[in-house]
Design goal:
- The chain has one domain.
- About 5% of the residues lie in helices and about 35% in strands.
- The chain contains 1 helix and 16 strands.
- It has one helix spanning about 155-160, and strands at about 5, 15, 25, 35, 45, 55, 80-85, 90, 95-100, 105, 110-120, 120, 135, 140, 145, 150.
- Strands 1-2-3-4-5-6 form a 6-stranded parallel sheet, with no helix packed on it.
- The longest helix has 7 residues, at about 155-160.
- The radius of gyration is 14 Å and the shape is globular.
- This is PPE family protein.
- It holds the Pfam family Pentapeptide_2.
- InterPro entries: Mycobac_pentapep.
Length: about 160
Amino acid sequence: MLNTGFGNAGSINTGGFNGNNLNTGFLNSGEVNTGIGNSGHINTGFLNAGNVNTGIGNATDAGEVGLTATDSSGFFNTGYGVSGFGNAADESSYGHGVSGFGNTAVGTAFEVGVSSGFFNTGYSEAIGPFALGQVSGFNSGFFNWGTANSGLFSLSKLAIKS
């Protein structure tokens, strides 16, 4: 599940009481949101019901959501389906799904991004059933590096490698 926080029902969330996936903040029911109380997808801000909005209380869609959508919300983001501030998912591959502040995911992996939190750096490595070059990112929390970390400073990896 890779959640950092409390009361999260989805996966790869940072914050509290998020009901879906890849949220940074609180009380978000959509996916890939940064902020509070967003029910749409890929929003940065507060109380947005539409998709791909930056701001407060938007009920309409400013962009599209889906596998082929290239829309992002927020500020200084690169990649597809990114919300928040200063996030980057490598656009040379299927780079998408990042929320939060200062997160990056790079490499030639097929799946790049899928992170939430603060200042996480994803790079491709073999993990679980995935061989080297298949995934990069999948981090939640604060100051993690590598792939599939939650918490602080990649401390979850120390427990696995010990």
